[in-house]
Structures are given as C-alpha cells and as structure tokens.
C-alpha cells in the first residue's frame, strides 16, 4: 500500500549514522543518497533492501512531536539484534524485545527512540519456531 515514507531530522549526519547501525540487523541499508546539489537544498538518505529505498530521513523543516515507524523483522532474533544495535548507536530504550499479546498472539517487538525522539520499532509476527 505505501511505497515509501520519510521525515525530517534535526541533525542529518547523526541520524544517518544511527539508522545505518540500527537497521543493519534487519537487512536494511542506505540504498540512495540525495545531495543538496542534486535537489536544490534537500539532503537525504533512503534505506531499504538492495535497490528499494522504502524509508527516508533528511533535512527539512523541523517537526514538533514524534513519529512511529515499525520495520518488519524476519525473526525474533532480528528484533533482538535491532534493539541492541539501536541502543549501541545512541538510541534510547522505549520497550525491550518481547511479546505484545495485546496486538496479537505472536506479535514480538522492540521499541527505541531515535536521536530526535521518534519511536522506532522492529516487529516479527511469526510464531516462535
């Protein structure tokens, strides 16, 4: 349904470094960079699987409030690895890895606040094997 999404960050270099590290365990990496020279002022990075930038961060007007983004994880171990990597990259814990049965029986997620306070999640919907 959604092709891609993105939001502005307060410190592009800091946020880019955070997402490079935090999203690596999920198989997401920088796929495309847009420079100020190319765009006439915007600088951003699109993350995703190879060849497909689904998630963008970049420069732009400051936002008030936070955004919630949930990334699909292929396993519960990937959710755990995301949480560790995001904390090591400077994120703040907003919910340790674990089951969230109030969503559904197999919902296994972890939540981290990025450098701007956005609530970033990794979630696996598969039953434990």
TrEMBL record:
Keyword Chaperone in annotation: no
Residues of the signal peptide: none
InterPro entries linked: Glyas_Bleomycin-R_OHBP_Dase, Glyas_Fos-R_dOase_dom, VOC_core
Positions in coiled-coil regions: none
VOC domain span: 1-125
GO MF annotations in UniProt: dioxygenase activity; lyase activity
Keywords assigned: Dioxygenase, Lyase, Oxidoreductase
Record protein name field: Catechol 2,3-dioxygenase-like lactoylglutathione lyase family enzyme
């Amino acid at each position: 349904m959604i092709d891609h999404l993105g939001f502005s960050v307060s410190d592009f270099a800091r946020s880019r470094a955070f997402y490079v590290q935090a999203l690596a365990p999920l198989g997401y990496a920088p796929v495309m960079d847009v420079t100020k020279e190319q765009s006439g002022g915007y600088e951003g990075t699109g993350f995703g699987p190879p060849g497909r930038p689904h998630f963008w961060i970049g420069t732009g007007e400051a936002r008030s409030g936070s955004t919630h983004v949930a990334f699909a994880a292929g396993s519960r171990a990937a959710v755990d690895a995301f949480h560790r990597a995001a904390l090591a990259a400077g994120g703040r814990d907003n919910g340790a890895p674990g089951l969230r049965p109030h969503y559904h029986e197999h919902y296994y997620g972890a939540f981290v606040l990025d450098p701007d306070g956005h609530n970033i999640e990794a979630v696996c919907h598969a039953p434990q094997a």
